[in-house]
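Help!! Second protein's tokens look totally different from the first
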Amino acid sequence: MIAVRDGSRGMVPGGINAGKDKVYGAYLNALDPRDNPDLQLSLAASTDRRFVEFLERIRLRRYERVSLQTIAKACNIGLEEFQNWWQRESTQRAIAEAQRASPLVTRDMADTARSKQGPCEKCEGLGIITAPSFLDADTTPGYRCVAEATDDSSAIWVRTCPYCGGSKIETKPGDTHSQDRVLEMAGLIQKSKGPMVAINNYGGAAHASAVTDLDKDMAIDSTATDVE
């Protein structure tokens, strides 16, 4: 077939609808292969020689004014084929990014799973809490008056914080979900497989009747002799 030059399509076989080529051009322009390093890397690593050739051509000076769709078609790459190829490459790159980030995510998850020490939340790291004025000093650790009564205020009594024992710190447990995930990843526990016990539907009965039948099945003979 004789090739003809079209303003938006470049050199194409005569008689082909220009609409699809305009869409192809818009698609490639959006990808911006001349300045998109991720796309260029995928093109360079492609096992399909046509995509490697496409990269080589768009980097040559003599192709600077040639439309991208014209270069792609010259390499025998159609619109649908380019889309499918880039979708596969994008998926692989996304997986690679996830794999690269997974050690950092796992490290954060493990840190969240660990118990940590911090200021006691009850006494706010002071080691003491306020107390009423009528407690027994002999049986209340740290019980004392820290401010005498005045005309404007009452006396202030305190005692040793019963939660931290006056240490001012407490151990805060790690996140249980993160703990489960870390232990699963380490192979120390099995992944949850749902509930271990299933309730049978007795002959398709409704819930209430099914429970009644279950009760009958589990009835205990009150006249049975005790086992010693």
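Here's the second one for comparison:
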Amino acid sequence: MVKTIKNYLEDGGYYNYNGSKRLYADTQNCFGIPNSIQLQIVAICAKEICPKPSIHPDALISEILNPMGLITGDELVAWLGGDYSMFKSQGYADILNPPVPDLGDMEEISWNDARYYIRAKTGIHPFNLNNDDMTYRLIKPGRIFLVAPANPMNHCPYIAERRDCDDFVRGTLGWLSRYGYGNLVFGAAYVLLKKEGEPSLPHVIHLVLDSNRDVWLYEPQVKTYIWKYGDKPPLGNCDSIELTEVRI
């Protein structure tokens, strides 16, 4: 029977250290070889993804080891033992600083037309969409569903005031810009979350205009929360959203 990494870690006591679910800390106690380069890399990955001194073993497996190409316990043992063939192209670097997926050829649109289409769909004039970029690009329908899972902000925890909603938006835009997608019509939407028609709290998420001239909203703190403007938001603390300002 092939053992998964979870089986291997369970056998090694990783889930039951000190009588509780094992959190990432003294990895050496489970993996051994405390001075191995590979072990140090795993430690760096975990600490970068989870700023706390620990990460739940399920997250260690799904967010770090599996994307590195390590699926079974034997593969993990071989890699930790020095078999670099298990170290896939890009390796852990793509987990910490992943590239934006290739979005293919995109339609170009003038800054003035981009403002027009956003206003036509939402009723909000995006005053901050200006001619710093005379030409913007429109992402194809569905491609936002490729961008969201790759967004490195997925691995950043919420920290009040220091990394809250607007910082998640800025981080996403910085990542897009770094990889040459800075002039997508992909910006900040300032909204009021509403419950039964009453505003509950202000929030900042992403607004995206696609090549069909449809407007989408994307919550960068939750990579699966993407919905078309006007649809019921998938957020648990509201049943509707009022758009108050758009900045591209």
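Reply: Different proteins will give different token patterns, so don't panic. The radius of gyration is 21 Å.
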